[in-house]
Structures
1.
Amino acid sequence: MKAVSPYKEAVEVLREAGGEILELCYQCGLCTGSCPWNLVRSFLVRRLMHEGQLGLVDFESDDVWLCASCGMCVQRCPRGVEIIDVMRALRRTVVGLGVGAVPESLRLATNSMASAGNPWGEAREQRGDWAHDLKVKPFAEGTDILYFPCCLVEYDTSIRPIGQAMTRVFQGLGVDFGVLGAEEENCCGESARKVGNEELFQELVSRNMKSFAEKGVQKIVVSSPHCYYTFKNEYPQNGIEVVHSTQFLAEQLREGKLKFSREVNRKVAYHDPCYLGRHSGVYDEPREVLSSIPGLELVEMVDNRENSLCCGGGGGRVWMETPAEERFGDIRIEQAREVGADVLAAACPYCRLMFETSTTTSTGEPVEFKDISELVAEAM
């Protein structure tokens, strides 16, 4: 029997994984016109879709790894084509069959998730270092809320203030909360799935679900929209309530529990994270919280709500290096300056990291990056 070439097998797997989706595409090109990559470089999404239809995909192309899964193309597609699913199928084909090269940074990140439960491969016992001196208790059965900070918050010192601020807010409100221990908590796995490592994603799901069940978790508050979307939409639905930090803060505000004693005299532009906004439909709660802070002036950038500009960190790209001249953060910083903001506020650790690592060459007033939880903690 004649052997099937790896390339032909890869095309067959791709068509099987996304064939029906690919057939819906009639090559209008709105996906390419909507993709933020085309603000800084060329990325022909339409061509990649057509190559999939024809079985002529170049699995070695860097384009396979460009998609940041922002959802703008899906939102605007007149046929409702889930282009992100096609991109994920492309990557699953590369990972599963080895027909193309996985970028080294992604390979290292996923290997670390598998071995150490976090993308850096750092020691598990360091997972709680972000809360040093904050007296955060381990979650035990009967505790009201499990706080799930995000691996970035727990291991990246520049992002750590998000978790520390949310902890101070919880404590100021008298909330009964706790965190999982170093051995029980693992990465939610969303990046593993987005870069095509479905087997690892399912393993991380299994580990976390086991911890949630053993600890009797009923409600989870997360700081990352990526954790939020993944827990709500891609984990088994077992009755656990999942709430993003901005939703929690808005609820506390409406109930009269969240009160402010200090003014925060800043002009703030709010950036809608893709996975909180377009993917999850949460637009009002972050603005409700920011507008309630005394002294704070909330302004809107040109690209807001469903048209928000991606930070560039989704789809696993937070673990990849983006050339300085291709970083979306430069554009976002300029948009904040255009409306006179001195603070660019987000509600996502990925966005915070991508903005902070963005190298902007433009001149103008400095813009500070803050998570909404930090501004709330400052005003309490």
2.
Amino acid sequence: MYGAQIGLAERSPDVKLHPSQAAEIVRGLPAFAGLPVQTGIALIEAGQMIEYDEGHPLITQGQSSDHALILIEGSAEVFVETKYGSVHLASLEAPAFVGEMGVFTNVLRTASIKAQTRGLAVRLDANELHRFGQQNPSFLSTLMGQLGKRFETFNKALGFYSHALGALERDEFDLSLLDDLKHPLPELVDFSRSFVRLAEQITLRRAHREEMANARAIQESMLPAYEALEECKAYVEIKAAMRPARDVGGDLYDFFLLDSDRVAVTVGDVCGKGIPAALFMAMTQMVMRYMLRHEPDVGAAATAGNALLAATNREMMFATLFCSVLDLKTGVLSYCSCGHHSPLILRRGGAMEKTTEFNLALGLGENTKYRANSMVLEPLDRLFLFTDGFSDAINKDELRYGDDRLEEVAESLRASASNAFINGLMKSVDEFAGAVPQFDDLTSLLVTFIERKS
């Protein structure tokens, strides 16, 4: 036990303390309350008066409990040594009775005590304490009572922590519970503070995860539904997948009918990650949806959309975007590549092609003009759009997945069903990266032109 503590008048370190003075101090401790003066003096004289400097080890964890100490002057720190380092348990101010429970229970020291200041103590050997206890049964009774109270306090504390941990596990933890930890048991001060920090972090992170889950749900709700192409499913099939590197991402894909004969298809990648990129992505998607519906061609839509994005872009964010419109009657694909890398055109005859025309990314120059280009898709040709999360993926050896590998895998999957094509590419990247965390968002979209609309 670390003992109860009472006040002590200051004394010059050069003045020796008389046993009768020490006895008066000792008699103020609960364990020695009511002790006759002569009995107190005899106890002090039977012990050894020791002086020590700051930092002096008074009791060492793991050693034999062959003595106890009555701290007469000074202060000390109680701590436990673990394999992770020292853990502070309590600070003591003299007078205090320490080490006595180890003496009477015959166990090794369970904690260490080190002087925080210069001090004075009486060292009582185990044999002397046993003899004193036999001669003064009230002393032993008081020690047992104090031990019982301490166990009661510990049990209440452990009960509270068990309840709090259960509440954390069930997601029912209320931060008001932490008010009960403002005045913990001295031996649990450090543990209590650590528990408070842990509970606060868990609660805050849980709230953050809920916010991110809501943000991701909102982002996913902005993605197009396949039902939007129901009326043209006989002529074109589109499958897409997006997997953010974080809770929310900066990639986007979109497809929708401009009219009964034309389908708009876009895939883009916003610089950066997380919430800022997701917000700019949402803005880019909404702007381009509007412009593609209201401008005469894809180049004009990109020009107008870029002017709007750049005019309000104080953070200088930008988005690469491949936007296109497929005419279902002619198979003509009008497109504008705004800083985005080329899609792969998988021809039904076995050829693989890329586009070579590029414009500036969206959001960088307010007066930039964008030019549209076109190609013709024949029935059963495929257009594969993707973001650079595929080619930039790395493995444990810091090797890139790369464009060549992507083209090889796409070639091997060219005859697969659309879902199998998309899933096969995702699986290929995952197997290449192995245990390396996903660095960038992965987005892919496959357009299969089935036949011309008559």
3.
Amino acid sequence: MMNRFMNQVMRVGLAGLVICLSIYLSIYLSIYLSMQNASAETTGVSTSAQSPPDLVWHGFISQGFIKTGTNNYLSNSQEGSFDFTEVGLNVTKSLSDNIDIGAQLFSRKFGPNENFNVKFDWFYANYQHSNWLKIKAGRIKIPFGLYNEMSDIDSARVPILLPQSVYPSQSRNFLLAQNGAQVYGFIDLGKGGSLDYHLYAGSINIDLPPVTSTAMIITQIDVPHILGGRLLWETPLEGFKTAFTLQNLDLDINLTQLGTPVKADLPVVQTVFSAEYTLRRLLLASEYQRQYVEITSTPATFNSRTNGEQYYVLANYQLTDAFAPGIYYSVSTPDVGNMVGRERHQNDFAFYCRYDFNPNWLIKLEGHLMDGTASLKTELNDNAPLSSLHENWQVVMLKTTAFF
């Protein structure tokens, strides 16, 4: 009991320290930027007219809190958890008029399995031949759907969690970026709007999941290839854009089941249809995803085919310059051929708001009404089967972020 109490004290203390650092950083940056602007006004030199810095730095630090009434979600959330901390620092540099490089270091405490392991979130070298032809190589963000490339930027969105049916936070570490190359560009269609295209190929690193049962132990996971592309059309109607994403990846898994070695191959094909409309302060978005998975194993223990369906509708409104509320409804069905049971679906009605104290510090509050258990993790719920968990449950989240 004493150890448990001390752990809670340490978590609260760490959360308080991060929040204090966030407030200090935001105040410092606000004062610094004000002094810079005042200096520019005094000298009569516009900061926009000055030459760009040799290096461009950005960083952020976030602290969140999550509480669920029943079922553990993302962390040990029934007791209330501060295991929702993120820190990142990125830098970009132009080497010439058509070559630039960049990288981001990232660390987070997210549930029981991620404990501030520092790593490169992404890094790249980029070459621009023209607006319609650019080449990027390295560990590159995956242009999947509308928002995957901003899933690591809390300040770029209103909700704490993007709709989890299409952008699952538990899979962020290997869905954010791929190791490989990308060809992309922008084509002006005149009165027909414009096209933005991305084609990419590479591989993905996936960490082994924690061992929760000796009956089945995963010993190796490889994603030897990922191929994909996204075509985004900025339509002639101002504020309206649509996109189509096609992605194929192959997972090779080695495991032991009751001491017997098993090799499994999982080809996955994903398609996403996306639409977004911005009208003054209102943003409306919706995406629909189909996911086809075929499992072939030796011996034929896990052979199966699934056809998953995921979609959401979202609305944000910038009520004032500092305050924005929003809602979304997100649905995830792992296999449309078998939808019987609470473990076969998860419907999420979310309502949230964001308040910006200043240009470098924000806070968010979010609630979720959940129906179904398809996206829950058995290892977070005492290894209980998903069919035995509470079908209707709630989530409350709070998060603050400081950034520059």
